[in-house]
Design a protein that fits this description.
Blueprint (H helix, E strand, L loop, with lengths): L8 E5 L4 E6 L5 E9 L5 H5 L7 E5 L3 E2 L18 E3 L2 E2 L12 H7 L3 E4 L3 H11 L3 E5 L5 H9 L10 H4 L5 E3 L6 E6 L5 H8 L3 E6 L5 H6 L4 E4 L10 H12 L4 E4 L1 H9 L4 E17 L5 E12 L10 E7 L5 E6 L4 E4 L14 H14 L1
Parallel strand pairs: 3-4, 4-6, 5-7, 6-8, 11-12, 11-13, 13-14, 14-19
Antiparallel strand pairs: 1-2, 1-9, 2-8, 3-9, 10-12, 15-16, 15-17, 17-18, 18-19
The structure holds glutamine.
The site of glutamine has 11 residues, from strand 16.
Length: 369
């Protein structure tokens, strides 16, 4: 135990390991896939990122809540994680610009948060034994029962979750008089992606996941965007079909994270579930054409298999993750299509990779002329 306070909550892993803590928000029980994020800042953006839907978030950073919440800095309209596990949870944030305490935010969105957990040991456990499911509960009277429940949580592999976080109707973002128009498929799109496009003179029409190809392709636009999102990309064959048809239209296409994975799947590439994924704001990536490194924001548990890239050079490996050499970016040789596994919009994280939005806009410009 790292706290002398009596435990009032626990995380029970499917392998039977138990970590104790105390409840800091609402009482109850929640479950999902355990993952950890190593970012030192940016908890609000992380907790509201729709790509985390279905996951229990362990924050490796020790202090959570110390700068409160500012609603307009959310990446979506609600908290998207299934539950929070942290070490120190601060009840009183100190930042003039905050508009509420993180605790209030968790209460408002009815999301369970527990603190006082030995998160260093828990992160090492996930790192050593891989991602696994767990239950978080504020009732710790029957740990055996919680373990059974943890074992029955559905595996993330094979789960389609985008439909839970996509918009219900199409909407527009940005300036209608902007120079460029882009149709975006919302698989769980982060706000900052829309801001990054709008800031570059792009007007975006955002479509729900279940949009037909005919409808998606009917808006007169200069290019297409496929967003980030939760779940297993291999569980979305209909979306891969739509993406393939869109790519065949010949207009510029850009994809981020889940969008990147589905662009890969649409061309016959394969994806796999990683041991414990990449989630943080200092992941090193190399741009293979410039030889330059970039420090990136990442959040993914699946990746494109490098061995599945075609040997004829029709799809180029533009970026690699420097820690494990996994595929971090691809580009089509003969089409204006490219995608990255990481988050150039950051939020949170460094801005090193914003140039990718500029490259997309350059393709839109070339296409228009
Ligand atoms: N941020 C994302 O788009 C995540 C993509 C996918 N759900 C994964 O975990 O790999």
């Amino acid at each position: 135990m790292i706290s002398s306070v009596k435990p009032t909550a626990a995380v029970v892993l499917e392998d039977g390991t138990v970590f104790f803590g105390r409840s800091v928000g609402i009482e109850g029980e929640t479950s999902g896939e355990l993952c950890f994020n190593t970012g030192m800042t940016g908890y609000q953006e992380i907790f509201t990122d729709p790509s985390y839907y279905g996951q229990l978030m362990v924050m490796a950073s020790v202090h959570i809540g110390n700068y409160g919440v500012r609603e307009e800095e959310s990446e979506s309209d609600s908290l998207k994680i299934n539950g929070l596990i942290c070490r120190n949870f601060t009840n009183r944030g100190s930042r003039p610009a905050m508009d509420q305490e993180l605790k209030e935010f968790f209460k408002k969105h009815k999301t369970i948060a527990i603190a006082g957990v030995d998160t260093r040991a828990l992160v090492q456990h996930i790192r050593d034994f891989g991602a696994q499911n767990a239950v978080v509960s504020t009732d710790i009277s029957n740990l055996e029962e919680l373990k059974k429940k943890a074992m029955s949580v559905p595996s993330m592999a094979g789960l389609e979750l985008s439909s839970k976080v996509t918009c219900s109707d199409p909407y527009y973002y940005g300036n209608p008089a902007a120079t460029y128009k882009v149709a975006a498929l919302d698989m769980g799109i982060k706000q900052n992606i829309l801001r990054c496009l709008a800031e570059r003179d792009v007007y975006v029409k955002v479509y729900p996941l279940n949009t037909s190809f005919e409808e998606f392709a009917s808006w007169p636009c200069d290019g297409y965007f496929f967003s980030n999102g939760p779940g297993d990309p291999a569980a979305m064959p209909h979306t891969a079909e739509l993406v393939k048809k869109v790519i065949d239209l010949g207009k510029p296409v850009f994809g981020i994270c889940l969008g990147h994975q589905i662009i890969g799947l649409s061309q016959g590439l394969e994806t796999f579930k990683m041991h414990h994924g990449h989630r943080g704001i200092n992941h090193p990536v190399i741009n293979n054409s410039t030889g330059k490194g970039e420090i990136t924001s990442q959040n993914h548990g699946f990746a494109v298999k490098s061995q599945s890239l075609p040997t004829d050079g029709s799809i180029l490996l533009t970026h690699n993750h420097l820690n494990d050499n996994t595929v971090a970016g691809i580009k089509f040789k003969d089409k204006p299509v490219f995608s990255v596994q990481y988050h150039p919009e950051s939020a949170p994280g460094p801005h090193d990779s914003r140039y990718l939005f500029d490259e997309f806009v350059n393709l839109l410009k070339q296409y228009k002329s």
